[in-house]
């Protein structure tokens, strides 16, 4: 099975400019291809994983991926998928984000020498206005540009000339990479189709109709319930471990719906067809074991954060499932509970009942006494039923935290001042 057939089996192809031409080219030689991302923030999120995993599959098949970080385009803003203008970032913000994203994607590809990083600021910053208008602006028909979905969707509310020119700049990227590095394929999300085809048109105008260049887009990822993939109640799921801890990341994948998990195994993992088919059968016959979800969580967490972080996330999950949280380290407590509402508490020892009320965990002393007597209160994993128990906030987790569990699932984090 060739790589295009594999991608089709995985449901990873939305549109192609010329499937037979691309297949013929891939059979002839190993090609160079690229995917770009703009530095709108200092971390990618899991939605960005899809095209980068696509690049990784091409790399594993012997092809040469180029990853473009848009230091130039990122300074003006991509209009795709937005109803309003992006807020312009300072030069310093863009430079910081470029560096952060480059380091992040480098980790995804394991420092492979088969991947090349480029920054379109290096060539876009060299144009003056007159050269841009004469050499490139003349090649673009405004009537064609406004029919592109990415622009048409903005016409009702308005679009600035700055964002309107984005497709020209992205087209210049493709042309530059084709000329300088023989890059013949651009990959992007489904919202990038108009920009990709504009780049192909520009190459054909500048280099001739015989130039072999192609575009391929990836489907918009939706969950089985029709909502957008990648969002949680807490917001985006980031690749930066400081924004989304490896434990939270692992849990996101572990908690996927049975209706979605096989699709995600195909999209986001490098497991073989046979391995995925076997897991798909387990979803049908033994869904309660959630083996497919565990495999998905292990594979994607390892790809993004490494094997050690994946094993730690698994260990934390097992500890929490058992309820024996006293085995957690202070760092693991921060991973698990760090983003939940918390209170600051003093280091002084205090009667547990009074401490629970004073820190807002129980509404009244009567309720606190009742919960303690009934065994509903655990302090750092230990059930406490003694109404005279004196709580020492510094007794566990390096003296930094007190973790209270009320009932079966409700946790409270107290940070020791």
TrEMBL record:
Keyword Protein biosynthesis: yes
GO cellular component terms, semicolon-separated: cytosol
Binding positions (L-tyrosine): 34, 166, 170
Subcellular location: Cytoplasm
SMART domains for the chain: S4
EC number(s) recorded for this UniProt protein: 6.1.1.1
Entries under InterPro entries matching the protein: aa-tRNA-synth_I_CS, aa-tRNA-synth_Ic, Rossmann-like_a/b/a_fold, S4_RNA-bd, S4_RNA-bd_sf, SYY-like_C, Tyr-tRNA-ligase, Tyr-tRNA-ligase_bac-type
Motif ('KMSKS' region): 228-232
Annotated RNA-binding S4 domain residues: 350-412
GO MF term list: ATP binding; protein homodimerization activity; RNA binding; tyrosine-tRNA ligase activity
Short sequence motif 'HIGH' region: positions: 39-48
Keyword Cytoplasm: yes
List of residues binding ATP: 231
Record-linked Gene3D superfamilies: HUPs, RNA-binding S4 domain, Tyrosyl-Transfer RNA Synthetase
GO biological processes: tyrosyl-tRNA aminoacylation
CDD domains: S4 (cd00165), TyrRS_core (cd00805)
Record's catalysed reaction(s): tRNA(Tyr) + L-tyrosine + ATP = L-tyrosyl-tRNA(Tyr) + AMP + diphosphate + H(+)
Entries under HAMAP family matching the protein: Tyr_tRNA_synth_type1
SUBUNIT field: Homodimer.
Name assigned to this protein: Tyrosine--tRNA ligase
Lineage, opening ranks: Bacteria, Bacillati, Bacillota, Bacilli, Lactobacillales
Gene that this sequence comes from: tyrS
């Amino acid at each position: 099975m060739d790589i295009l057939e594999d991608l089709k089996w995985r449901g990873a192809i939305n549109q192609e400019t010329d499937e037979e031409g691309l297949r013929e080219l891939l059979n002839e030689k190993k090609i160079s291809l690229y995917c770009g991302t703009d530095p709108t923030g200092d971390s990618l999120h899991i939605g960005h994983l899809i095209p980068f995993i696509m690049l990784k599959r091409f790399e594993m098949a012997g092809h040469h991926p180029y990853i473009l970080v848009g230091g130039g385009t990122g300074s003006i803003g991509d209009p795709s998928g937005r109803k309003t203008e992006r807020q312009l970032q300072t030069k310093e913000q863009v430079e910081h984000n470029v560096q952060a994203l480059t380091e992040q994607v480098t980790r995804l590809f394991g420092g492979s020498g088969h991947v090349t990083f480029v920054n379109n600021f290096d060539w876009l910053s060299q144009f003056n206005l007159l050269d841009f208008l004469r050499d490139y602006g003349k090649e673009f028909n405004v009537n064609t540009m406004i029919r592109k979905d990415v622009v048409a969707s903005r016409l009702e509310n308005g679009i600035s000339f700055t964002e309107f020119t984005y497709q020209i700049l992205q087209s210049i990227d493709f042309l530059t990479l084709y000329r300088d590095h023989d890059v013949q394929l651009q990959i992007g999300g489904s919202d990038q189709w108009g920009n990709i085809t504009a780049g192909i048109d520009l190459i054909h105008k500048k280099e001739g109709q015989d130039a072999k260049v192609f575009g391929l887009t990836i489907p918009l990822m939706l969950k089985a319930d029709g909502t957008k993939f990648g969002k949680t109640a807490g917001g985006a799921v980031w690749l930066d471990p400081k924004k989304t801890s490896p434990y939270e990341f692992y849990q996101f994948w572990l908690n996927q719906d049975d209706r979605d998990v096989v699709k995600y195994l195909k999209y986001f993992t490098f497991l073989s067809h046979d391995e995925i088919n076997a897991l798909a059968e387990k979803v049908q016959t033994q869904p309660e074991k959630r083996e497919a979800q565990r495999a998905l969580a292990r594979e994607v967490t390892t790809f993004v954060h490494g094997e050690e972080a994946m094993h730690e996330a698994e260990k934390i999950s097992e500890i929490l499932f058992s309820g024996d949280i006293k085995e957690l380290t202070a760092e693991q407590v921060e991973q698990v509970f760090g983003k939940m509402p918390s209170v600051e508490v003093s280091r002084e020892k205090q009667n547990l009942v009074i401490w629970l009320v004073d820190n807002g965990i129980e509404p009244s002393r009567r309720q606190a006494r009742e919960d303690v007597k009934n065994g509903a209160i655990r302090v750092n994993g230990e059930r406490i039923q003694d109404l005279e128990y004196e709580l020492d906030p510094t007794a566990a987790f390096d003296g930094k935290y007190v973790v209270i569990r009320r009932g079966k699932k409700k946790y409270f984090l107290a940070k020791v001042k």
